[in-house]
């Protein structure tokens, strides 16, 4: 689909022109349909660009206030909320989850720490019970199902991507920790979004105008077959194998891969903090930008930030079957995925290509989000091209 160049809008500060050039090239050469990118540097917004089509079927243009589903890039926003809760001394990373949520101890999870859970080491990346939207709206059922789930490996001994379940575990812990009993959606709204004046939601409210939402252009089985060479073979094989853990994890919320399902309001209204965050790219960049410059607006404490910025162990992921590196809800730089200026950086990629990150060494908050899903993992060439152009501008390491 050829997107008219006139639909590319926004501003970049003096000297950041190459970032806009890379963004424009995504539409000219990499098949972008609609996208937005925002970057904060030392608390100042230096890049805020958007363009293309909000809906490639109806040919409606992307607007300045367009929001979209960012899939697992949502995890970074949920992790920011958990970091704020830690700074409010609601929990410690070495606390056992069962001390916060006694029922969680069932199935052999009694010794799992908050750090292990947030770092995808608890062994509970899937739900064995059959999931439906109606059941997921029943918070009592979901809480019981999460607590009852037996680990897929001995907790703490290995890591594997808790792609869907992590956000639900975070939300249930927050409900029990927060003096007001808020789950992730309300806690994030009041402690993050309202403080920074940004539009990002866990559980999209009815008040958001439909005309602000980008249509997600997903891919079906045929498209996957035609793009097998772009996906890590081990990861793809694991997800296609019904007996594989990767496939079982995907079954936890199967509608995520169906275009006609993921664009429905009833799906976006569901509070699934790991995968169903909806908002503006600039909202993610603003949150990361605040965290990268001390987090004062969010009430983040120095010890919390030090924990987020620590290097983390990396290795073969039991779910994804490729190397990954997770810590406290974020992905961290590792040899298979370098980003930011140093290993102190942290962020979250989303299925299809979106990515947001904080780079504390350079004071950077960055986010790129698009509505045509791609096939690469962990970094999409469209997003990486824009990020690389930015780091070339500021003279830092290659991305």
Your description of this structure?
By secondary structure, the protein is of the alpha+beta class. It has one domain (66-399): Beta-lactamase (3-Layer(aba) Sandwich). Helices cover 34% and strands 15% of the residues. It contains 16 helices and 14 strands. It has helices at residues 17-29, 74-87, 97-100, 114-118, 133-136, 139-148, 165-177, 184-196, 221-226, 233-240, 245-250, 259-262, 265-268, 281-292, 302-309, 381-393, and strands spanning 9-12, 34-41, 44-55, 60-61, 68-69, 200-202, 277-279, 315-316, 323-324, 326-327, 330-331, 346-349, 355-359, 364-370. Strands 1, 2, 3, 4, 12, 13 and 14 form a 7-stranded antiparallel β-sheet that branches. A hairpin with a 2-residue loop joins strand 10 and strand 11 (330-331).
CATH topology: Beta-lactamase
Mean pLDDT: 93
> Runs with pLDDT <50, length 5+?
none
Q: Could you spell the SSE succession in H and E letters? A: EHEEEEHHHHHHHEHHHHHEHHEEEEEEEH
């Amino acid at each position: 689909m050829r997107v008219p160049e006139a639909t590319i809008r926004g501003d970049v500060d003096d000297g950041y022109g190459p970032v806009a050039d890379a963004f424009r090239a995504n539409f000219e050469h990499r098949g972008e349909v609609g996208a937005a990118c925002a970057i904060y540097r030392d608390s100042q917004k230096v890049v805020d660009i958007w363009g293309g089509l909000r809906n490639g079927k109806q040919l409606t243009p992307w607007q300045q206030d367009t929001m979209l589903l960012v899939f697992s890039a949502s995890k970074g926003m949920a992790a920011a909320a958990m970091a704020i809760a830690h700074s409010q001394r609601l929990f410690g990373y070495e606390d056992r989850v069962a001390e916060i949520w006694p029922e969680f101890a069932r199935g052999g999870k009694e010794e799992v720490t908050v750090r292990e859970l947030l770092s995808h080491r608890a062994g509970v990346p899937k739900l064995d019970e059959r999931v439906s939207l109606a059941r997921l709206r029943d918070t009592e059922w979901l809480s019981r199902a999460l607590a009852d789930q037996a680990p897929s490996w001995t907790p703490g001994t290995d890591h594997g991507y808790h792609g869907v379940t992590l956000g639900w575990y975070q939300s249930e812990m927050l409900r029990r920790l927060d003096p007001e009993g808020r789950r992730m959606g309300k806690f994030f709204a009041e402690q993050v979004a309202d403080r920074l004046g940004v539009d990002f939601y866990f559980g999209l409210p009815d008040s958001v105008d439909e005309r602000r939402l980008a249509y997600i252009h997903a891919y079906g089985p045929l498209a996957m077959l035609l793009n097998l060479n772009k996906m890590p073979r081990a990861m793809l094989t694991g997800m296609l194998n019904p007996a594989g853990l990767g496939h079982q994890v995907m079954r936890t919320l199967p509608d995520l891969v169906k275009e006609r399902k993921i664009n429905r309001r009833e799906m976006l209204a569901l509070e699934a903090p790991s995968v169903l965050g909806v908002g503006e790219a600039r909202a993610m960049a603003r949150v990361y930008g605040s965290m990268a410059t001390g987090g004062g607006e969010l009430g983040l404490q120095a010890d919390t930030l030090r924990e987020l910025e620590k290097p983390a162990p990396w290795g073969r992921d039991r779910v994804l079957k490729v190397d990954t590196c997770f810590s406290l809800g974020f992905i961290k730089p590792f040899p298979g995925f370098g980003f930011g200026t140093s290993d102190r950086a942290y962020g979250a990629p989303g299925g299809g290509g979106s990515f947001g990150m904080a780079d504390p060494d350079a004071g950077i908050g960055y986010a790129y989000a698009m509505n045509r899903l791609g096939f690469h993992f962990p970094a999409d060439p469209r997003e990486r091209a824009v990020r690389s152009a930015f780091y070339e501008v500021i003279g830092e390491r290659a991305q």
